[in-house]
Amino acid sequence: MAEITYREAVVRALDEEMARDENVIFFGEDVGKAGGVFKVTPGLWEKYGPDRVRDTPISENAIIGAGIGAAITGLRPVVELMFADFAAVTLDQIVNQAAKMRYMSGGQIKVPLTIRAAQGGGAGFGSQHSQCTETWFIHAPGLKVVVPSTPADVIGLLKSAIRDDNPVVFLEHKGQYTDRGEVPDHSNHIIPLGQANIVREGTDITIVATQNMIKVAKAAAESLANEGISCEIIDPRTLVPLDLDTIINSVKKTGRLITVEEAVRAGGWGSEIATQVTEKAIWYLEGPVVRVTMEAGIIPFSAPLEAALIPNKDRVIAAIRQVMEP
Predict the structure, then answer these.
(1) Is 129 marked active-site?
(2) Do the beta carbons of residue 200 and residue 214 sit within 8 Å?
């Protein structure tokens, strides 16, 4: 095992896949000579050259359109949108073209396109550069949606995304790029899409969280462990496909469930999980399912206000106490 950062995991996965398959290409704004706006892709342009690593104009429509074209003609493009928020500019191509082509062609056309983008708050980028956007894509049949939370997950899931014959939206949390974690020191580390991770085992309550909220959930769980409350934390890792079986099996054991997501409350993935668990395991629940989300819809530029908006340990602890009440 080796310890690397979340940022280093991105470039390692891309490097290993580009070395393995010459059909893997990579392009986006400033990803080549500059090594990416978040410095997550250094060295790829120098190693693979401008034919396989290309800097693009500032046009999300051009980036996604070129990616779709490359994918349906036999390549395996990885394209980067500088901020996930900017996907709104090109949603038509993502949800109406890339997501539907395989179905509409009766399987004759494959779209092995991976769309990488940085999302999430906490860095003071303001309301147009800090959203968690996974729910936008969950609503589009034909897309797979990945939300890695550790360096090992970044490597294993990004490799799976690149090898998949369907379009995959791969969302990296910009607040985690400096996080460190152990990863296998070989190039065969693969994590199948749709396989959740039990981050912490427990017996009293199930917490489902993703990305930066895993750290918040772990801090809450460690604090409550001193009071004898045992929390099980599940990281779905991919929201489409969703490993619902792991979540339901956990709820059957604990009898309680909360979800923690760094996104607006209305229509969040936590709502979907709560609904499905209620439909399929209601008789195992000993209390209501509680969702912890952002307090409001628009992220402020002010650092103190942004910090107050994003779910924190105290709010998760309050939600756990609410669910644990007789």
Answers:
(1) yes
(2) no
Question: What is the per-residue DSSP string for 34-86?
Answer: T--TTS-STTHHHHH-TTTEEE--S-HHHHHHHHHHHHHTT-EEEEEESSGGG
Quick: pLDDT tens for 123-139: 888 888 989 999 999 99
- pTM tops 0.90, yes or no: yes
Would you place residue 326 in the very low, low, confident or very high pLDDT band (cuts 50, 70, 90)? confident
The last residue of a domain, from among 150, 183, 216: 183
Catalytic residue among 16, 129, 173, 189: 129
* Interval 21-61: pLDDT, tens: 999 999 999 999 999 989 999 999 999 999 999 999 999 99
Asked whether residue 321 carries a pLDDT value surpassing 90, the answer given is yes
CATH of the domain at 29: 3.40.50.970
DSSP-H helix ranges across 183-268: 212-225, 244-254
Alpha helices in the chain (DSSP H): 6-20, 44-48, 60-72, 91, 101-104, 134-138, 151-163, 212-225, 244-254, 269-281, 303-309, 313-324
- Residue 49 domain boundaries: 2-183
Of 8, 29, 60, 232, the catalytic one is: 60
122 or 244, higher pLDDT: 244
Contact 29, 62 (CB under 8 A): no
Is 209 found in the same domain as 179?
A: no
CB 29 within 8 A of CB 63: yes
